[in-house]
Amino acid sequence: MNANLVTDAKLALVIAEGKPPLVPNMNDRAPTQWQFFVAKVGELGTPPAGTLTIHENVWLIPLANGLPFATKLIEWAQSYSVSIRILFLTEVPVWIKYPPDAEEKPSQATP
Q1: Nearest residue to 52 (alpha-carbon basis) of 11, 99, 101
Q2: Whole-angstrom Cα distance, residue 111 to residue 71?
Q3: Domain spans of the chain?
Q4: Residue 19 has what pLDDT?
Q5: Per-residue b or e along 23-45, where b marks 16 or more CB atoms closer than 10 Å to that residue's CB
């Protein structure tokens, strides 16, 4: 592991782990903790400039301006019992898209 990871990191890949119900249970209409977490994140509005929203639960966040956003994600995940994984990166990863001609969602920003 890089000894200077904390000082050299420029980005954080944040993944909220959850198991959203794949098939709604007709007998149980109460929202799950996961649904509460996703709804709470949705209340934040647009993530900070340069943040790449990969999925409703995966973000590539620039630490220069996205630390408050990352902190909120961690805080809310803890309050809704959602596990978070964070991978610190020193540079923007080179993404490989498949299929290659797939377009990004309009809400995604390129870091």
Answers
A1: 11
A2: 19
A3: 1-20+31-111
A4: 67
A5: eeeeeeeeeeebeebbebbeeee
Answer whether CATH 3.30.70 is correct for domain 1-20+31-111. Answer: yes
The reply to whether the predicted model has a pTM over 0.85 is no
Contact between 56 and 38 (Cβ < 8 Å): yes
User: What are 38's two structure tokens?
Assistant: 């996703």
Distances from the Cα of 25 to the Cαs of 17, 30, 48, 49, in angstroms? 21, 10, 35, 38
In DSSP notation, 60-91 reads EEEHHHHHHHHHHHHHHHHHTT-EEEEEEESS
Q: Note whether 12 and 61 are within 8 A (CB).
A: yes
Report the distance separating Cα 111 and Cα 90, nearest Å: 13
Confidence of residue 6 (pLDDT cuts 50, 70, 90): low
